[in-house]
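DM from R.C. (forwarded with permission)

"hey, sorry to bug you on a friday — could you get me a structure for this? deadline for the figure draft is monday and I only need the backbone to look sensible"
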Amino acid sequence: MDSLVEKINSLKKEKNAVILAHCYQNVEVDEVADYVGDSLYLSRMAKNTDADIIVFAGVSFMAETAKLLSPNKKVLLPRLEAGCFMANMINVDSLRQFKALHPNIPTVCYVNSTAAIKAECDVCCTSSNALNVVKNLGAKEVLFVPDTYLGKWVEKQLNGQVKVHTYNGFCPTHLRLRPEDVEKSRLEHPDSKVLAHPECHHTVSELADFVGSTKEIMEYVKNTDFKEYTIATEKGVFDRLQRDYKEKTFYLLSEKLVCQNMKWNTLDDIYNSLLREEHEITLDKETSEKAMACINKMFEITQPLSVSGGK
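My reply, with the result:
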């Protein structure tokens, strides 16, 4: 593996490339990554580098977001088939049908969606700023796509101030969790704090000690002094926390918390993609302009800019 890591690092210098790794990726990918984090943070980091090539170890919507924010850079996705199940639950036709059922209501689009979907929406959001985006729109009703659980979690936090109409999309990985998983964990680890992602079913998030985005969960561990934590999000977060905070104890709420699509990118895939400069992300001009308007609206609403978010 060391020789492969060395080859990738050498290629990065030769081609002036930067490698971004989402924190749901296999931990080995961190050995060659320049930045590790959630999707919007990574895209922001890519935009701020002087790299000519961006290799995004993640899934397709993340690479598309990087391309939107860095249109003049070559963006590569090591495995083109690495898609997001949630993002694929909605297409332009189904979105338009959903909007037609609720006319003249602003549409908030979770960053976990394709560029084509973003192009049809009014404003983008991340899991860390969704609450602020919806609140600061100043509307009494909003449409929220594609994740129904994040949308309903936001609605609950606003205590009835805003009616959130949600599209029936979801994250299959987070939805594998059940409240009985939390209850069982409480019995086995009574001193452990349960940290959950808002993509979880509301019956799970309501039982958690803390609910937040991927980055917020990791920051919670960093900034608190508890000795034990139970992680209710994708296993990649658990793996990195175990690696980085050896003085603390972590439990994965369920062994089912693995997104297979996120695990597809290997060091071999990254090497081959960078070597051949293959699996490039391309977007047409009209879609890019409309999708960027959606993202820019989020930035306007959430000043000062937050670089956290996404999954």
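R.C.: lifesaver. The longest helix spans residues 285-301.
me: no worries. Confidence is low (pLDDT under 50) at residues 304-310.
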